[in-house]
Design brief:
The protein is an alpha+beta fold. The protein binds alpha-D-galactopyranose.
Amino acid sequence: MKYADLNAAFETVFESQPSATYFAPGRINLIGEHIDYNGGHVFPCAITFGTYALIRKRDDQICNFYSMNFESLGVISVSLDAISYDETDDWVNYPKGVIKMLADTGHPIESGFDVLYYGNIPNGAGLSSSASLEVLTATFINEMYQLGVSRLDTIKLSQRAENEFVGVNSGIMDQFAVGMGQKDAAILLNTNTLDYEIVPVILEDASIVIMNTNKRRGLIDSAYNTRREECDAAFRIIKEYYDVQFICDLSMKQLLAIQTAFADDVIWRRAKHAVSENERTLEATSVLKAGNINRFGELMNESHVSLRDDYEVTGLELDTLVEKAWRVPGTIGARVTGAGFGGCAIAIVPNDAIAAFKDQVGEHYRSVVGYDATFHVATIGQGVHRLD
Ligand code: GLA
């Protein structure tokens, strides 16, 4: 989709010219999965797939939303004095949640707007199209209405929109990556303190390949919320022994010392994943900085095993892709990325082996799962920004 086409589409839908265009990326997470709600370290980066918004302010109280990805839904109109969750408004609940959270934090807007969105993040792929939409909306509203909200606060209130308005109890990782991403670098984020470090992703003659399971993702939100509840249960046990704020404040040694306190094996394995994943993420970032990509790849593989066996968020489709990827000669590392239960995996593959990699993994996947996976070479791009 070209820029000019988006402008033309805006004119057709709203019979006027947009006054600004913004872009927000999707994200992949290199390592540090399902620990952004356990106070752990995560290591995501923004990608060049993302969401565009073309906007024009209005003089009245109406916000008109249109998405080129959901053309059949047409223009959905919402009045600023009646912002509430409405299932029939579908995707518009995300931007509505952002407007509501801005207002609730003392930043109401005085007039509405017309907005057209277009996204090229593969649908339902777990590459954070919802965080992209939220942070995009928070950013263009903040800038166009000169609300003076900091970037970090637009990130936090975007997460709140997802948690409190849409009802998914997600952590801060996705919105943070979408808001703070930098070209060719990943973000080592401490989700407890929100301290972060930008780490260049230098893979020499290799690239990150995104592998999309193309699995229809039903019910992930409830499975995700269940994992959070299981972590809360684990934390209640930990609190009886240690004075800590989050599961990931513990070392593996400290956790192993209280293993017998966990009567339920499921709860034990959830805690074990969280603590071990946090340690892996810290090691992975330090080996990447030292240029040891092979060790980084091994840690990715270990992360996948932990998410498969202890956290149980992978499933046939992701395991088929990742386990085959491990067996293709040359692969440096491979793992699920994001929430799991379908969605995408990533692999680090030498550039001269990518074509064979796609063929071999693709063919195996089709023979096991019965439909095709899709492959994209990831480009790490910049966080949310204005384009024009
Ligand atoms: C989803 C959530 C994130 C994070 C990941 C798993 O993407 O939105 O907050 O928990 O799953 O790491």
